Amino acid sequence: MIAAQTTPILTEHVRALRAHFDSVILPLWMGQGFNGVLGLPYESLDAATGKPLPPSRYRAMACARQLYVFSEASGAAAGQHADRLFASLCRVFRNEHGGWLYSVDAEARPLDDTQDLYTHAFVVLACSAYFQRSRNADARKLMLATASAIEARFKTNDGLYHAALSADWLTPLRPPAQNPMMHLTEAYLAAAQVAEPALFAQHLRTLAQGVNQFFVHGPTQCISEALQGTVGNRLEPGHQFEWLSLVHGAAQVFEGLELVETLPRAVQWARAHGVDVKGPGVLASLDESGAVVDGTRRIWAQTEYLRALAVLGDWPALESGLASFRTHFVHDGGWHECLNGQGEVVRADMPSTSPYHLATCLAAMPNVV
Fold it and tell me: Which UniProt keywords are listed (predicted)?
């Protein structure tokens, strides 16, 4: 959290959002959002009732995100829930080839055994946060083992990372993509807080240089979703904000790299073209000319916008952004996951993965009491 000269209205917005997270959202996922028999969070809850939707699968990434949330939350109950989630992550999702299953079915039997970089990144992040809270040595060991597997298996010859590999690690299934590597950046920044800071800093600098070389779109300076030159490539404003928050918070690690210079320009472009400040917020995606590809307003993009405004210290924009967010996306029983441009709900469930975005957003808010 950061200290700031806040207005009474901004202070009230931050307090209210934190109170909602602590009193509504966290209890929801410790209660009816948690399958006590399997020891796993349900994938999604009905937004109107808070009851779990019939599960068809459980993902390791979703379990890891919840582990991160409860490792960061205060209170004994949150810590005990983090213990349960860590035990389930280890018991249910370990792959027989090493690494992690992507998903299991409704009875917790292996469903998709793809070695997925996004999943592995969140395991590193979650184990780091859980170790910092619990001091459980197994979490640190698992974090280091997973990071070692990522470097040995996913890394390409040009310093990027395959997005997915076959279960036996031998066959690339998806090429490098922005989003998994962004979350790998987040994960390695967290890992460096508990082990091998110099090694992780080296990995991070190589990754950032690769992203700048292969993903930055010259005219906008935005980081594209796919490799530059990919037909139908798109730019997601939310990811520009997310990258800025990560890099800004680790200035020493990224010092002197081109990405440090391009990201403020990317955020400026994203704010100009991808944020509806008079409506329900940040658009999902644009093409490289700035035309709207997907005008859906997803909750994660709103939280990343708010987080970036806090990081930048833009208090007037943060105050109005929080007011809009609370009006459009927060309701008494939880949150709205997706809205259209008119502010109408277009997705009527609450996924288990979204509290992670709310948690990282709140962690960046001004430190008000």
Answer: Isomerase
Model confidence, pTM: 0.97
* Distance in angstroms (rounded) separating the CA atoms of residues 265 and 87: 43
| Token code pair at residue 333 | 């029983």
**Whose structure tokens read 């599960």?**
55
**Domain span(s) for CATH 1.50.10.10 in the chain:** 34-202, 216-368
> Per-residue pLDDT tens for 233-284?
999 999 999 999 999 999 999 999 999 999 999 999 999 999 999 989 999 9
Give the CATH number of domain 34-202.
1.50.10.10
The CA distance from 229 to 38, in Å, is: 44
For residue 189, what are the contacts with CB-CB under 8 A and spacing of at least 6? 200, 204, 246, 249, 250, 253
Nearest residue to 239 via CA among 267, 275, 281, 268:
267
For residues 161, 166, 169, 170, the Cα torsion angle rounded to the nearest 10 degrees is: -100
* CATH class of segment(s) 216-368: mainly alpha
Rounded CA gap, 352 and 42, in Å?
Answer: 7
CA 312, 316, 319, 321 torsion-angle sign: negative
CA-angle at 236, arms to 48 and 226, nearest 5° = 120
